[in-house]
Design a protein that fits this description.
- Helix content is 4%, strand content 38%.
- The protein has 240 residues and is mainly beta.
- It has two domains: 8-38 and 144-229, Expansin, cellulose-binding-like domain (Immunoglobulin-like), CATH 2.60.40; 44-138, RlpA-like domain (Barwin-like endoglucanases, Beta Barrel), CATH 2.40.40.10.
- Strands 2-1-16-15-11-12 form a six-stranded mixed beta sheet, with no helix packed on it. A six-stranded mixed β-barrel has the order 3-7-4-6-5-8.
């Protein structure tokens, strides 16, 4: 059971698709700072193709029934930086759709997206095969709090945590223990890992999204292939 709630902080900064963790007063839920986020990543242009998407892929999300998904090109995918991000994609006829990044497209060039058949078909007939697109990040239309998903095999000796149901992609996860902070290392398959573990738990965790906003949760129980809800959700950045 979780002992107390969260700290949520919004910070200003320069345009980036990476971020660093920020501390906060854990005595009570609060919102602090300027109320703005780092600037959204710049819009991109490229080519859109399609594949038989299930919702699973390099980002290690589960397959599901939501097929409005896409795979990010390898150059932009980086170290899973875009996993879980939602993108507004505009096709050659000027109509737009929103997709969530769940996979990587190794053969795609910078700016390209490999869309699900469902998503591609909303921009162009599948027979086109390849179309010009433009895209930019938008807040994901999620409900409820973020969730902590523990990889199968996680234990007190090996911690592997993934954040799900987030409005924005995740930039950092830190475990807090008194004055000590342990930063979990992000992996290309979209888990954050403490290779030597974090002990038996429960854990006090600080999660920073890619826009610089912070949520802190206390009393997160160790899981093994299980998911536990957090206490809050990242707010929509001003103007988005």
């Amino acid at each position: 059971m979780r002992a107390w709630a969260l700290v949520l902080i919004a910070a200003c900064g320069s345009p980036s698709h990476s971020s660093t963790a920020d501390g906060g007063d854990a005595d009570a839920p609060m919102v602090a700072g300027s109320g703005s986020c780092t600037a959204a990543p710049a819009a991109e242009t490229g080519q859109g193709t399609y594949y038989n998407a299930t919702g699973a892929g390099n980002c290690s999300f589960d397959a599901g029934s939501d097929f409005m998904v896409a795979a990010m090109n390898a150059a932009d995918y980086g170290n899973a930086a875009w996993c879980g991000a939602c993108l507004a994609v505009t096709g050659p006829m000027g109509n737009s759709i929103t997709v969530r990044i769940v996979d990587q497209c190794p053969a795609c060039s910078h700016g390209d997206l490999d869309l699900s058949e469902t998503a591609f078909g909303m921009l162009s007939p599948l027979s086109a095969g390849r179309i010009p697109i433009s895209w930019h990040e938008v807040p994901c239309d999620v409900t409820g709090p973020i969730a902590y998903n523990f990889q199968m095999g996680a234990s007190q000796f090996y911690a592997a945590i993934q954040i799900r149901n987030s409005r924005y992609p995740i930039g950092a996860i830190d475990a807090l223990a008194g004055s000590a902070t342990t930063s979990l290392a992000k992996q290309s398959y979209n888990y954050y890992v403490a290779a030597s573990g974090l002990g038996p738990g429960p854990y006090d965790l600080r999660v920073t999204d890619e826009r610089g906003q912070v949520i802190e949760d206390a009393g997160v129980a160790l899981g093994n292939g299980t998911t536990e809800d957090g206490t809050d959700q990242f707010p929509v950045c001003p103007g988005e």
